[in-house]
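User: My instructor asked us to take a sequence, write out its structure as tokens, and then describe one feature of it. I'm not sure where to start. Here is the sequence I was given:
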Amino acid sequence: MSKALERIYNGLIKENPTFVLTLGMCPTLAVTTSAINGAGMGLSTMVVLILSNVFISLLRKIIPDKVRIPAFIVIIASFVTIVQLLLQGYVPSLYDSLGIYIPLIVVNCIILGRAEAYAYSNPVIPSFFDGLGMGLGFTVALTLIGACRELLGAGQLFGCQILGADNVFYQVSSLRPLAMFLGEYTNISIFIMAPGAFFVLAFIIAAMNRLRRSAEKKGKRIAAASDCTNCLGKDCAGCAANKDQNPIDLKKTEQTKAEEKAEKTEAESNTEQDRTDEDSKEESAAEQERPDSADSDSANGKEESAT
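Assistant: Let's start with the prediction itself. The structure tokens for your sequence are:
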């Protein structure tokens, strides 16, 4: 149970695919014009992620290592097709809103990355919770970005008018002062346009980085994006290949690599020094041969003059 909670926490907070690893930026920036669209894309991706992780983990001893990537893509594409048909049949409005980004889930680097880094080398249950954690993290991130953009750009939240004129608080007489205050809000339309996605994402990532630094000052180690030097080894996707090693072994491995690099550098410097010594010897030998040749030329000249 602790391992399952650890995988969920890892996907939600510590290794969030959007705010920490900055993966899957195409749907993150394109479909988050509203909270509903963000939640729909996140849930669809989570379903595909969980199912693909489970099936790849089940078939990990059958899939040949040389063709594992094509096998992963075929499995992922099968589940994406199922999800696409279900959305088209039962939630056509969401299907129309997401459009081409539903089939593009096939090439989402989050799904393929978790299949390669975790599901292909771990049992079914941990792979299931890893997909659940990463899927929840992606869903929360897209929903949060969509909610911020929708609220600031249209004054709505999940289609309900919160800010601006005719907000829902006018319906409650006791909240009339609040409704009048919120009614003065003017929509910032840029947030529901393409640049608004970059603005919101940048502010949220900056806040996450601030929280991470504060946690590190208190002694809580949280892995940063694409940085395995501060992670705990077993939990980071970048260190999934070293999952059987503990942090001490990882440090020893790094020390060994550093020593090998130093030895290689020293050997190269010695080789260069030997080459320099050989060149200097050749130059000195050439200089010694020059006077001898000059003497022989002078002797030949004297002989010719005598003749």
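For the description part of your assignment, you could build on this observation: The two ends are 110 Å apart (CA to CA). Try explaining in your own words what that tells you about the chain.
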